[in-house]
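re: ur question from earlier - yeah i can do the single chain one, its not a big deal. heres the input i used so u can compare w yours
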Amino acid sequence: MIPPPADRTADDSASGNSDSASGNGKITRDVVLAAALEIIDRDGADGLSMRRLARALDRDPMILYRHAPNKAALLDGVAETILAQLKVDAADPDWPAQLRAVARDYRALALAHPHVVPLLVTRPLATPLGLRPRGTLRPLEDVLTLLTRAGFSGTDALHIYRALFGFLHGHVLNELQELVENPDETDDLLRLGLHRLPIGDFPLLRSLAPVLARYDGAAELERGLDILLTGLATRLIPQSR
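and the output i got, formated as tokens:
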């Protein structure tokens, strides 16, 4: 499981554990969001506050409100910053290959910023589509463009997008979970704690202990994409074919 943020107090700067400050340079929205991302990467979203962010930037907290009115806006901005790095080549004639590349890049972003993953999965859903930060909608628009150019109807393109990102969200959340109870154990049942499950109630789950213990996120992603994209290509036929 994603580790919880470390406990910190408002006095941590006085104890010599303050965030790196930058008293020089112009404070822009990009600078604010970059600093917020650093805090979240290190300590999780619960470790972010306007006061702590101001301390990291060596600025009065009131200055930050010009760029983000509250913490919720900061979290939305951080999600937008990460999703802005997800590039979709809407002109790629090979739509399955492009969606596979997008999926790999999304996983790479998730592994690079595991504390941000809950924001990517939940923050957009808390806001109606038209009110979401424009950057969070760019991958959706680009995937829709990719698929409609390939001949899919807008409805089918949206279905494919939802299926892909539903799979991706589940995959990265699963990959980031703690799988091993006791890493010093050599027996897979003991390493995963599956020995605690009654064998009469969970025979199949216990029998898969060796497979579960050797979980390979990259390989699992490819297997899932094979199933998903093959199924979509079979069921949803582009109109141009």
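The CA atoms of residues 194 and 201 lie 12 Å apart. not sure if urs matches, ping me
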